[in-house]
Amino acid sequence: LDDMGPGAPPAPGPLLFPPAAGAYHWRRHFPLRSPDPSRMATLQRAEDTIEVPDRLPVIALRDLVFFPYMVLPLLIGRARSVSALKESQQNDGLVLLVAQKDPRTDDPGSNDVFRLGTVARVVQVSVLSDGTARVVLEGLGRARIRRLNTTTEALRATLSLATPRESEGGDGSG
Known about the structure:
- The protein is mainly β.
- Helices cover 10% and strands 37% of the residues.
- Strands 3-5-6-7-8 form a 5-stranded mixed beta barrel.
């Protein structure tokens, strides 16, 4: 399933999708740093438990709401989103995906995104020749932005995991 050719290092775990020709699995090329476990919440999935840091990089999505248990390929091209993708490598490939309120906004700020989003895991990355990244993401659970930092290269959020009640209702803007 994960054949990257002769001499390629073994993958750390199975991929959900076989890589496209020329694609690579990002965990092979970037060492992972373990986040501080004292600052993590826990997401319980049917098959495993996931430690989620209280701060994650944020990718704002245009015209798309990403939900837990979804697995989708996306094209990531905006500079802030590419930076967030690179930062996610320090958090075991975790990133917070939030929907933009107005898809025409090129550089969304704190008031331009919904506060309720989805913690997602980066499954696979393929960098295209124009610098755009084709990323396969897996939604893990819902989270609410408590504070959004827009002064850095990538958007970063301090977050808390959403309760089931928060995940089911409301507009996510609160």
